[in-house]
Give the backbone structure.
Amino acid sequence: MQISGPEDYRPNTAVAGSPFQIADMAPNLPGGGSATTVYDENDRPAEVQVRDAQGELVSRAVCIYDAQGHIVEEKQILDNPEMMIPAEVRAKILEDTGASREQLREQLREQFTKLMGGQAEPFSIAYSYDAQGRVKQTRRRIYNQEDMVETTYNEHGDKAAEITRSTRLSSANEQSLPTAGVSTYSEVRHSYEYDDRGNWTEEIASYRSSPDGAFSNPSSERRRTLTYY
């Protein structure tokens, strides 16, 4: 269990990582809270439960595995989105609107669903794998922005290319908007120099922003020196 206090709250702060990684840390909640990790029968992390300082469930992160033990999906679930609002602000909203807590919760869920393009969870990542157990496709969605990443590998097992298609999802009443369902494209191609043991010593990445566009001059280069004993 990881615990935070009121003094740890940092509003308007973003944290990088997967849904499970973000949940599995001291919560950034008004008033503080706790994050408890639940393990499955194979001793794998399966769920993180985030609670406020009073012990009320705020959100969860769920991790799903396939028969080979690969992670196939991670997703964040907002059980009580109103608990993310500071207590004094929440009390004022209830007082000003005359709404009940249940009504406020439903209103927030409705707004979140619209913001998320009709999806159920605010943040999710799904993975699929090739016969060698390597990630070949990643579907990442944050609110209404979805990225589909396709990864291919060379004969050495190193990444050969990554193609990312990004799409803005829309709810049913937004389907007519010009930006609804429009995708953008990016591709990174990797090339390598290898030593006599088949390990790469130089990696060069090139980029293009359309399927038929020209690749840029090397966007990045990495070199490494390996010592064998």
Remarks:
- The chain has two domains: 15-116, 144-223.
- Residues 101-115 form the longest helix (15 residues).
- The chain has a mean pLDDT of 87.
